[in-house]
Amino acid sequence: MVLLVMYMITGFYTVEPKEVGVVTRFGKFLSITGPGLHYHLPYPFESVNIVNVTDVRRVEIGYRTIKPAPDARYQDMPEEALMLTGDLSIVSVEATVLYKIKNAADFIFKVQNPENTVKDAAEAALRQIVGLNTINDILTSEKAAIQAKTRQLLQEILDKYETGIMVVGFLLQDVSVPPEVEEAYRDVASAKEDKQKKINEALAYKNQIIPKARGEAAKIINEAEAYKAARIAQAKGDVARFEQILTRYKMGEDVTRIRLYLETMEKVLPGLNKIIIPEDSAGVLKLLNLNQEKGGEK
Asked: Is the full-model pTM beyond 0.70?
């Protein structure tokens, strides 16, 4: 009887606040118990697995922590860290996955080695996301986006296999160019900087020359408009003057004809002494210049 009592007492167990108990009967999942004192049928009928579901666990990709802080030491894992980018460049990526258990039953019964499963799935997800980005984006502006996308993809993979794991964080610890290709990458980066410099110089020249050309074009247009206005005004003045002459001509055709003739001769032969002989004049006496002084020019 005492042995039976002692045997039955072995069925009592305690679950701490951070834990849950996974009860199995003959190896098959039966129930999950929360914090407190509980009882199950003694072994081999039932057994319980206590699982911590609140602590955050971590998996490292591309490196391993040999000694934690304050005197931290790390070991590189190049076979995990080296990855191929979308533009066929090689980049070294080190990352940390933070996770905890969201379903203790799945975690126990459907995952044989949880840590290796998370590491392999995280490495596969990270390689896929890195392969969709260029090396410049990975090294500069897209780090946050890569972290978010990798975390989302990793969670989808773990949910697909019903691991009972929830990813609470994915952090890129170090992203760099491998030493073997660092010099070549610097040459490429320098060439890209030179390219951008030439583009900026061309844009500056464009911004300088286009306003100047527009100003010159506007100047030419304004001068043309002014010339056009002047020619129109002159033409209108010529028309008005011709109309006035025509009016006067009609009032006295002979007088106007003679005046126009004299004005034209004045313009054609400027600075010369001119003698006007009427048509009805006869003899040469009228041609003598009686006002010319004696001894003067003839």
From this structure: no
